[in-house]
# Entry
Amino acid sequence: MVDHASAIDFSIPYNVHYDFDANLRETPHDRSAMERGVAWLARQILNVSSDLHASARLKGMHGVYSRILGQLENAEESLKDAVALSQSVLDARLLYINELRLAHVYQWRGQFEQSTPM
# Structure
């Protein structure tokens, strides 16, 4: 998907599709492809470091797919950064999305006292 507000293409060139398991947790169709997608997102984040809005979007995406892969520390770090960047660019919609994504990480960890208020 190309964002019309930016020249950056946010399409991930790897299979990052997923299904839901019996516990309603996402499971990747192709784990190794999703891992390559996460690595690709990490490189894109470095390439757009001067564009805070793009960085917030990419870090949010990186956090989501890291969580799906069970890399909860990486997910939390990316999503905390995404939340902070969303606040700094004053994008309420992006802030809401990234806070919700961070709440999912806390839920996966069983940290409901942190996730519920979010």
